[in-house]
Amino acid sequence: MATLVKKFGGSSVATPEKMHGIVDRILRERQPDDRIVLVVSAMGDHTDDLLTLAAKVNPEMPKRELDMLLATGEQVSIALMASAFCAKGQPAVSFTGAQAGIKTNDKHSKASILDVQACQVKQALDEGKIVIVAGFQGITDLGQITTLGRGGSDTSAVAIAASMHADLCQIYTDVDGVYTADPRKIPAARKLDVISYDEMLELATLGAQVLNNRSVEMAKKYHIELEVLSSLTRA
Known about the structure:
The protein is of the alpha/beta class and 235 residues long. It has helices at 16-29, 46-57, 63-87, 119-126, 152-164, 197-205, 213-222; strands at 3-8, 35-40, 92-95, 102-104, 113-116, 130-134, 137-139, 145-147, 168-173, 226-230. It contains seven helices and ten strands.
């Protein structure tokens, strides 16, 4: 029996068709006793659309209200993903960051995760359900909704993996791994089979967009094995 955390970014869940593709892939690849948690981002460019909308209402929107707005993007994704699993006969349940027990500080728009108390997640897994958690968001001790900043869903996934003592945290993205350089610019770039936390952190800090640097720092701290996979190709 393995506990697996799988994160899917916005491009991976951009359409209902892509969501159903994810469901089919997970149901095809899982082992009978696997306990699976999905962490998902907002669909496609939905976060950018919300930012544009916010700017039209108030170019200087209070960060607390902006977090309230942006957190709705992931809530759309998790509800649809859970429903997609249910449509295939697989029990599933969605949780916001707050419901999943992701506790943060009060730095709106750039909050840091302080703790994860994933009681509801564990209970749902014990009931045989696949769990879908909203990435990018959490809640303060005073009940305020917060967001983690760009790339925050990676950090959410690693934090949940750490709290669950997961066997593996898989980051699904629109690239098929980590390369020595951007393969779109450097044709001779090599795909790496293995990379250390420190090397990946250096790449992330220098601008590589495969993994968020905070997620790598957290993975190193809690010894979480990370795997980068393509959501566009069939395993």
